[in-house]
Amino acid sequence: MSADTAIMPIPGPVDPVPVPRAVKPRADGRTELVGLPKDAIRAAFESAGLEPRQAKLRAKQVWHWIYNRGVSDFAAMSDIAKPQRGWFAERFVISRPEVVEAQVSSDGTRKWLLKTHDGHDFEMVFIPDADRGTLCVSSQVGCTLNCRFCHTGTMQLVRNLEAAEIVGQVMLARDALGEWPSQPEGRMLTNIVMMGMGEPLYNFDNVRDALKIVMDGDGLGLSRRRITLSTSGVVPMMARAGEEIGVNLAVSLHAVTKEIRDEIVPLNRKYGIEQLLEACAAYPGANNARRITFEYVMLKDKNDSDEHARELVRLIRRYRLPAKVNLIPFNPWPGAPYECSTGERIKAFSNIVFEAGISAPVRTPRGRDIDAACGQLKTAAERKRRSREAA
Ligand code: SAH
Ligand code: SF4
Question: Would the pTM count as exceeding 0.70?
Answer without folding.
Answer: yes
